[in-house]
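Appendix B. Chain record.
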Amino acid sequence: MRNSLRRWKNEKLAQKLIEVFESKSVRVIYLPDIEMVVEEVHKLIPDGATVSSGGSVTLQESGVIDLLRSGKYEFLDRDSVSEDREKREIMIKAFESDYYLCSANAITENGEILLLDGSGNRAAAVTFGPEKVIFVAGINKVVNDLDAGIKRIKSIAPMNAKRLNLHTPCVTTGFCSDCSSEERICETYSIIIDSRRRPWRYTIVLVGEELGL
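Structure tokens predicted for this chain:
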């Protein structure tokens, strides 16, 4: 009973988001199960396209990263190199990609997409450069409004810092303290509120399961 009710609730929420975002020329595709993600993303990206991605637990969990590395695409993979200089070169080349994939830190019911970056490469590529941007996000990323989105971001920042093996106060305490650490990952907030000037550049693949952080 609980699972069927959650599935029903997620479908209703997805319907609401589809209407809100499409009024802003942002496409939303709802998938009830994680197993459907790779097939859907493959439909969205033609074979041979140049693709790049931001660092994302969601893309890893959903199998999208494996798809990008499958040989079907020219994948600008920053994790394929070890030196910081080489990683930076790939991140800059991402601006010329046909498709950029990442997740969002929060998606609001009002039709806004929130990102928080440590170096700004994801926020920069999302807002300018690649021809198309695809967000893959679990239903757990959906919040009521911008305030709730920022609150969510601050609640997950310590987990991301720990995942990246950083030495920030939040890794010690488990809570954001708006620190002044040199390893702070909370540097660049970005909010997408509309895409009517560049219609359908953004696609959100929304999954009816919890994904990522």
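Further analysis of this model is presented in Appendix C.
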